């Protein structure tokens, strides 16, 4: 089958699936029960998502669980979840996973739990497909629906071709029709949680109505304090080794940095489909002794505490948790000027935003910080200061306001 024909076929399939979702949402609206009232004990919340790390889970779930308005959070996932008070983990059955695969088994389990228990709120991290399923079962069961837009506008732009969803990324080319349907779906949620202001502005500019709140993950300030002592690495990257992160761009930038700073050292933390390819590229570029690949690590705070500059070369982002942790640890950042990253990185104050994603531009900015100790110190202090409003207890207060507003007599929150 020719690429054009395959793209057309995928577009038809995606459009049909989204059309079916819209039809089911219409039926659920007409036949579903009224929204379940929230009692004094607080909100019962059911969530699902693809969680890439324990830190990621702690950042997003802990502030919700700590909220005074939260009674309980249940999470349907295959990923190991750190022990948290008021958080219950539901793991799909092994037989169900063997028959259908992990993702379908998770979503089926999520659907069954939601319809059986009828929680006050049902939410999904990422729109495709967790958010869409959450909006449907919430409407059918009388709950409020929550969409956690952790990936930023890329989750809907062009029909989700950059969303890293296995089906939607097969579109290959932007599809305005699919994007329009996805935007209508976002408008159906009772609450849309974006990680940064650019994502919120994107949805508003495209006519999405309803309650959109900017709530980043919460970072533990004490955990990501400075380790002290001389740094082991000059440059640190933390993230999935996937195409969207463009780690090959970082490696090519390090070649140029090495010409100015021969002893430069970098550490790349994380796993992904491109790890072997990237390790091979590093050797081929002459970076074998300069770049260390650690794989997935649990001691991120220790690694950040022994590093000098955080670099993120992503093609697109929401509000990167890894960046938040790095800045909380006092690291200046050099990042692509995409997504919501500018909410954190103030150009030439606590780091640099790179508007042209080339090895030369990244290398220039990285070398500038490493060669100027006064600049590094100034940026490091400003980076830590910028993270104050993203500390866990600050995020808890945001959830207190939202969940408290769902109690009888409190009224609905304003959209802005």
Description:
It is a single chain. This protein is α/β, with parallel strands linked by helices. The protein has two domains: 3-23 and 41-218 and 392-405, 3-Layer(aba) Sandwich (Rossmann fold); 233-390, Rossmann fold, CATH 3.40.50. The protein has 14 helices and 13 strands. It has helices at residues 3-31, 54-66, 94-100, 102-117, 127-141, 176-187, 197-205, 247-260, 275-284, 300-305, 321-328, 359-371, 373-386, 392-405, and strands at residues 43-48, 70-76, 87-90, 121-125, 144-149, 191-194, 211-214, 233-238, 266-269, 291-295, 307-312, 333-336, 351-354. Strands 3-2-1-4-5-6-7 form a seven-stranded parallel sheet, sandwiched between helices. Helix 1 (3-31) packs parallel to helix 5 (127-141), helix 2 (54-66) crosses helix 14 and helix 3 crosses helix 4 (102-117). The longest helix is centred in the N-terminal third of the chain and has 29 residues, at 3-31. The termini are far apart. The relative contact order is 0.12.
